[in-house]
């Protein structure tokens, strides 16, 4: 075993070509991010994990159905356009929103070393998902933000080797995490721009 970020595919390693973002690699990296919530060790974040997982399933189902038309996320969305129910397009849209929320929260935490995770996740929620949620869902997320673990505990788990090996050094973790988040931020921004340019987000 190894520290968590060494065990999952980094968004920095997701291939991006002129044709778009590699679908299979992106989904694998997204699954790695979902697992990150296990380190937060809070049942309140179950709603976030379940939403991310459900949307990953929708996108993967479309890829499995027509892989040659879905090898990049952009092609997947373009080729679903015109169908009555664009499940993968909607799933990817919400997946991007959830990834943006998590990415922003961790970027805020990285930029403010003295700030607790509850503050960072609260700020990220206000800047991302909150605009799309009704009163009830906002309440659920409010509880989740308050249930964040202490910053020190989370980063200790992120550095730890579950098998009992040496923990990652702080410098290594920060370099790895910042690279991971920068790549994720770039992918989310790229795809959100793509959605708006093609009006793929209309109706959702």
Quick structural gist:
The protein has 204 residues and is mostly helical. It is built from 8 helices and 2 strands.
CATH class: Mainly Alpha
Mean pLDDT: 91
Number of helices: 8
Which percent range describes the beta-strand content? under 5%
Number of domains: 1
Query: Largest beta sheet, briefly?
Result: 2 strands, antiparallel
- Any idea what the CATH superfamily is called? Glycolipid transfer protein
Choose one word for the global shape: globular
User: If you compute it from the alpha carbons, what radius of gyration comes out, rounded to the nearest whole angstrom?
Assistant: 17 Å
Largest sheet: spatial strand order? 1-2
Which residues form runs of ≥5 with pLDDT under 50? Answer: none
Separation of the first and last Cα atoms: 41 Å
| Computed structural class | mainly alpha
For this structure, the quaternary state is single chain
CATH topology: Glycolipid transfer protein, GLTP
Percent in helix: 55-70%
Protein name: Het-c2 protein
